[in-house]
Amino acid sequence: MIKDFGAGVGLLLRGFSLVFSSPKRVLVGALPAVITAVLMITGWVFLFTNIDSIAGWLTGFADSWSDTWKGVAEVAVGISVIAAGLGLSVLLFTAITIMIGGPFYEYISEEVEDELGGVPEAEQIGWWRGFLVGLRSTILLVGTSILFAIPLFLCGFIPVIGQTVVPVLAVCINGYLLGIELTGIPFTRRGRTFKQRRQILATRRGLVLGLAVPTYLLCLIPLAALVVIPAAMAGGTVLSHRLLNGNRATA
C-alpha cells in the first residue's frame, strides 16, 4: 500500500510534467477551471454569509439549552458544516469542471495517451456525452460522499477522535472518490462503465489514493485547482492507461 501510494504521488508529478510541457495544454486545462472557480466562489460567499443562520437552524434541538451550551453547539455545527462543504466542494469543483470542459480534457487525455502509445478504436466522447457521463458520475460520487459525511459529521463531536482521526478519514474518502472522477475520460473512451471503473480502481487503491489525496489537499488552496486539476487529469490518464493495458505491476 505504501509503495503504491508513493507511485500514485509520482503519477501526479508526471501529470504536472505532461501538462506544463505544452503551454497549450495549460491554457486548455485552465479555462474550464476558471469558469467553475467563479461558480464555486459564489457558492462559498453565500455559505459564509449565511453560516450563522444555517448553524442556528441545524441546532434547533438546543433551543432549550443554556446560552453557553447553545453557543458551543452552534459553533461546533458551523465548523462541521464548513468542513463538510469544503470536502464536497473539491469533488464538485472537479466534477463540474469536467462536465463543462469535457472536450478540453478529452483533448489533454488524447494527447497524453498518444504519447503512451495510443488507444486503438477509442470512442469519441464529445461534449454532450461527456456532460451526461460526468453528470451521472457526479450524482453518484457526491451522493456517496454525503453518505460518508453524515457519520463523519456525528463522529466529529467525539473528543480527540473527532479532531484527529475523523479529518484524516474524510480526506482519504473524498480523495478516493476524487480519484474515481479523475479517471472518467480514459475509461469512457474505452467503453468502460462506471461500475467497471470502480472495480478496476479498487484493485489498486493505494495508487488511486497516492494520486488523488495530494490533488484533493492541493485543491483546498485557493485557485490552485486551476493548474492542479489539469495535471491530475493527465496523471489519471496515465494511471488508467497502465491499468487498462495490463501494465499493473508498474502502474
Concise structural overview:
By secondary structure, the protein is mainly α.
Walk me through what this model shows.
This protein has 251 residues and is mainly alpha-helical. 80% of the residues lie in helices and 0% in strands. It has 11 helices and no strands. The protein has helices at residues 2-20, 23-49, 51-58, 67-100, 102-115, 127-155, 161-182, 184-189, 194-202, 205-218, 225-244. The model has no long low-confidence stretch (mean pLDDT 80).
Average pLDDT value? 80
> What is the radius of gyration computed over CA atoms, rounded to a whole number of angstroms?
19 Å
- The fraction of residues in strands falls at under 5%
Uncertain residue segments? none
Organism: Lentzea kristufekii
Membrane topology: Multi-pass membrane protein
Keywords: Amino-acid biosynthesis, Cell inner membrane, Cell membrane, Membrane, Sulfate transport, Transmembrane, Transmembrane helix, Transport
Protein name: EI24 domain-containing protein
Features:
single chain, mainly alpha, 11 helices
List the helices and strands and how they pair.
Blueprint: H1 2-20, H2 23-49, H3 51-58, H4 67-100, H5 102-115, H6 127-155, H7 161-182, H8 184-189, H9 194-202, H10 205-218, H11 225-244
Helix pairs in contact: 1-10, 1-11, 2-4, 2-5, 2-11, 3-4, 4-6, 4-7, 5-11, 6-7, 7-10, 10-11
